[in-house]
Amino acid sequence: MTIEANDAATRGSAIVPEGVELSKGGADAWSPSITPPIGIELTDEQKLACSFRILAREGFSENIAGHITWANDDNTSLMVNPWGLWWDEVSASDICRVDPDGRVIAGKWDVTPAVQIHTELHRRQPEARVVVHNHPYYVVLLAALGLVPEFLHQQSSMFDGELGFVSEYSGEIDSPELGADLAERIGDASVVILANHGAIVTAPTIEEATYKSATLDRQCKLMYDVLVADRPATTVPPMVRPAMKASLLERGTEVYWAGAVRRLIREEPDVLE
Questions:
Q1: Class II aldolase/adducin N-terminal domain: from which residue to which, for each copy (predicted)?
Q2: pLDDT at position 1, please?
Q3: Hey, what's the torsion of the CAs at 241, 246, 248, 253, to 10 degrees?
Q4: pTM of the model
Q5: How far apart are CA 134 and CA 52, in angstroms?
Q6: What is the pLDDT of residue 5?
Q7: pLDDT reading at 25 higher than 90
Q8: What DSSP element (H or E) covers 116?
Q9: Would you kindly state where each structural domain of the chain is located, as residue ranges?
């Protein structure tokens, strides 16, 4: 069973000031004339390796668990991490390629059958070129409580209309049938918390998938801290979320990605090897 985040929210919204014309948000409202570049051209394998290490730095990982898959243009193959490497040690040369059924067709390592979570979700959501799955701590904490993060901060607006919760838990997923069952329960949601398991984030680009995943666990931590504080809290008003979402994704995605990659390459240049 998948529930929308808006259905799970229980708090009152912040008050929108009267007589104020709200921003329309997004690139149409404002776009920078120039932004700081990464500085070098990256291959797709290098970009994927960077995503693993960026998310490991953000806490969106659990030792050997999890995958990020990136489908090619015609969805005939997927790039993925190998079994046995932690996300913070993946380099470009470690990236494997599997066919739509999860069989390794390129790479020096093996890939766990849990990649069926991804292969089936790519089939269910063909527009989702990238699928991220792992067990970040604060996501798992809310998953155990049967909760999704509420819209407590403006950054969470990037999940508006996309956040879901799958309440069933069927154990290890290691077959196409189990992967297809989970994909069916996820439906069209693109930011999903799985009960007693972890999170799945889908996106059309590696940049957006990384940005959303990094933001998700932070918003789950914020939700947990609000619960611990046990004080009245408000949520971002529904009418302002779409504009804020547009601004975050249309203006923020590439800038977030470039900054995260610059910092990573400066401190861990071996990621590109």
A1: 46-224
A2: 44
A3: 150
A4: 0.92
A5: 11
A6: 44
A7: no
A8: helix 116-124
A9: 2-11+41-260
